[in-house]
Design a protein that fits this description.
Organism: Mustela putorius furo (European domestic ferret)
GO cellular component, one term: motile cilium
Structural class: mainly alpha
Strand order of the largest sheet: 1-2
Shape: elongated
Mean pLDDT: 87
Family: Belongs to the ropporin family.
Keywords: Cell projection, Cilium, Flagellum
Largest sheet: 2 strands, antiparallel
Strand content: under 5%
Distance between the termini: 78 Å
Order of helices and strands: HHHEHHEHHEHHEH
Radius of gyration: 22 Å
Number of strands: 4
GO molecular function, one term: identical protein binding
Number of domains: 2
Number of helices: 10
Amino acid sequence: MPLPDTMFCAQQIHIPPELPDILKQFTKAAIRTQPADVLQWSAGYFSALSRGDPLPVKDRIEMPVATQKTDTGLTQGLLKVLHKQCSHKRYVELADLEEKWKNLCLPVENFRALLQLDPCKDKIEWIKFLALGCSMLGGSLNSSMKHLCEILTADPEGGPARIPFETFSYVYRYLSKLDSDILQGDTETYLATLKDTLESRKNGMIGLADFFILKRKV
């Protein structure tokens, strides 16, 4: 192939001054997130960056814990990314949520299977979708609530993972109703006992220690 008539030297090529930092931050984000499809994730990354939206980036690298037979692709870290992207709205459009799901390289069939647990038409309350995602991770109500606390808490990693009791009870009731093996009366008894235990506190927060200690008592 013949060389072009015009040759450019380094002095003739303009490099935007912000480009090196953008590429550096992008590379760090890709390393932390470890996307299964770099091109798909990159499209979502730069699209969010151009709009000034929260980026599809994990806080830290997650070690793989699932086997190929059980791996849905979803992790607590990815759910936390979705929470950062969606929690500013009470309700999220399913089309927008599906796009964010795809940009995290998660299987679309798992997204649709998740919605079948509580079918809706065009939008879903974000906290309910987050709860459904936690149930996919957890496999049991206790594990689902543990994931929820760790995603929603403002406590540092490894801390008590406290969240408001109102949020905890709302999600606990929601997931309990979706489980035919759990009686509504048992749910209300448990939440009432938990509320009594927390009444001495002024902040109305529940942490993992409170939750699991009380679960052993009731």
